[in-house]
Records
---
Amino acid sequence: MLNPQPSTTRLLMSGNEALVAGARDAGVAVAAAYPGTPSTEIVELLSRCDTVRAEWSVNEKVALEVALGASLVGRRALAAMKHVGLNVAADTLMSAALTGVNGGLVIAVADDVGYSSSQNEQDSRYWGRFAHMPVLEPRDPQEAYEMAREAFALSEQFEMPVLLRLTTRVCHVKRVVRLQPALAAPQPRPYVKDPTRWVLSPGNVGKRLQVRTERETALRELAERSPWNVIEHGSDRRLGVVASGPAALAAREALPDAPMLVLGLGTPLPVDLARRFCTGVDQVLVVEESEPLVEGELRAAGLAVHGRAWLPPHGEINAAHVAHAAQGILAGDGAAPTPAPVPERRPVFARPPTLCAGCGYLGVYFWLSRLPKAIVCGDIGCYTLGSSPSWNALDTVFAMGASLGTAGGVAKAQIGQADAQPVLAVIGDSTFLHSGMSGLVNLTYHRANVTVLLLDNRATAMTGGQENPATGRTMGGEASSMRVDFPKLVESLGVRPERIRVADPYELPTFLKVLREEMKADEPSVVITTRPCVFAPDFERTPALVVDEDQCNGCTNCLDVGCPALLVTRREQRTRASGTTVDLAWVKIDPTVCTGCEICARACARGAISVPPAKRVIPMVEAVQ
Ligand code: SF4
Ligand code: SF4
């Protein structure tokens, strides 16, 4: 699917794949991203196109700046990110919307509607309104393909970045997509040095604001006649629907005969078109994910519409929700709107996410879970799972890189308090490079009493093990000319060498010793862990361990490690002589899952867990004795 299509082709594709095909057809030359579900595959796939120079940037702001730089010199460029990533990129975004672009610049942003893999739910269309940029909103992979093909030309026509807004459903759902022959390769647009445009000093801003206002007027006119804004006529005119994105498909499923205004280019909003549509129906329901944005703007334009009051306040909108809303509106009994219930989780056996067997974080959380008095500020990554059972070891997780700043605030608030609690921050390698470094500088600058656990697992693991500057490889696995040396980096950020410790989280007793020593220090300290992600190329799997049933007394210590390879074979409750009851559990190890890391063996005081004798490698010297 990544080679140019010689003629019309039909392929089963996800929205992300289709978007990539459309961008490739349009001649995108540079692509940059920071991985984040559900957008990760976009630039990953673009990197496989011979004609595209792609990279994992250290964060979304830098990714947008890379794409902006390529656009500046006249190439078509794409930056991809998830919704929270656009917050990180927002500073550059607002300026890029003001300077405008040269080569077509498309920002593919994937909103995790339904928050399946995110710390919140956001509606990125607001960024389009805020920055006065056009926003394209595909309903499905076919439209993702077509919009991506056209978005670059639109960007060049108006010299504005174009936001291509997807949701999780569009990103990952698959349908047959009709691909067209690739467009003629675009000629790079010449770069003309013009500081009055590209340098946003206050003296130049006024002129750019004027240009932006004129462009927005032209964009509004375009939206009024855009083929992406379609009125679908219907026979039942009692209730018309204004909808966008996959919510429009849900509305069509619920109301097959309803007239519908589908907004594929809803930013800026084609108010006159909407007004014409509304006059042709008795009542109007606005169906959109995830905020009532269009609904509010239609009301502001004086149009009486129904909307969010009848629909779930968050999460995906499905056909049942729309049917509920239509039923209530058409009943016309004056009853107050009742929102459709929030989508319910299906009643399946609970399978909470967990860390992998052999993950170095198991050793870290084994000890953090035993520090009830400490305040532990977590961050975004696999290690966010430390907030879950069996560890329950994290107090906070806010945003990428937020652990260090937050921990600094907790420490500052406790200065001089007799009952001050120890403060720790937990952050992974990729997140530290993304936006954690400035937090560490702040800690050292203010000599905050915080112990930072920098978990270097040599991967951006949570999104699938992408490369980053700490892996020593670039996108596609090619060796980079550098690899971040974390001890040197944190020293350069102000941590005293004595307070920089490198520790192996598999070695439970020595790891605890290091942790205790650094928590006693009255200044910022950093403990860097060394074990690679079990999916990293340099992870070494060793033979699975076994439990000696005769030695095991069911104490459950090993279960506190939280390794999914440890299985409970029997539980029992016993009453001690003192009258207290204890819960006991006997265990075995799943040899197909165990990586042989030996963390559980170190947690077992009875020595009941060991390498199976049959698999033990007997040293030559020992063998001949
Ligand atoms: S820690 Fe050792 S004794 Fe306790 S349950 Fe696990 S294997 Fe058995
Ligand atoms: S050795 Fe123990 S902790 Fe490590 S993977 Fe195997 S069962 Fe899990």
---
Amino acid sequence: MATLFLQTGRTRSIPLQATVTPTPDRLAPPTLPATPLQADYGAKEFWSRCLPCHGERGQGLTDEFRQTYPPEDQNCWMSGCHGARPYPDGWTIPTIVPPVIGPTSLIKFQNAQVLHDYICAAMPYQWPGTLADETCWQLTAYLTRQNGLWDGAGELNQTNAAQLAFLDPSATPASLPASTPTPTAAPTLVPAAAGESNPSVRIVIILAAAVLVLIFSLFFIRRGLSG
Ligand code: HEC
């Protein structure tokens, strides 16, 4: 006991140094870098719109994450909160809010376009369909980059997102194609020279020539007979 007190006393007596780092506030808003990328904007959007349900690291509404809530709000499914009987104009949250960042998350989406479409149509859960398209792209860029599915360089949009496939989450982050793909040109139709390739055209020509020869010979035969 004595040693314990002694040690406590000694620990207390160590002067606080300027280098002591405060515990990082895990719920602090992300700061934008000097030249923000699409995914950096997405981080901000995620913080303000998605974090309360999906966690600050995209881990989902885990028990551990809910401990960051004030004690009275930690049980989201209590009557009068977001359970089966929510507060007036409130909404019910499913008991499982899935992770959106982590090894197995997003595996059900084939590519970034599908993820974008889902976010735009279904999230945030309580107000689906309210996000601006640009916000959906920023969130898609953020989630894709945080999951290591994309290197984050460039900008995701409807011309390239379908090419960013989510098939192999263990592969190194993919890059977008260097230039936006030009739609493949429709094959130019070169009209084939008459009779060159089409056998039926050849038959028609031969028949026409034969008919002409027949008409001419009939004509001359008649002239020969009458003359
Ligand atoms: C009110 C809580 C809530 C908020 C806020 C919310 N989500 Fe969700 N999210 C859910 C729930 C619940 C599901 C599961 C829905 C289901 O399975 O039908 C889900 C599912 C998802 C999924 C699919 C995950 C998977 O693998 O099934 C994505 C992606 C997603 N949310 C992204 C977002 C984004 C981005 C935002 C912010 C714009 C957001 N969510 C805000 C509750 C929320």
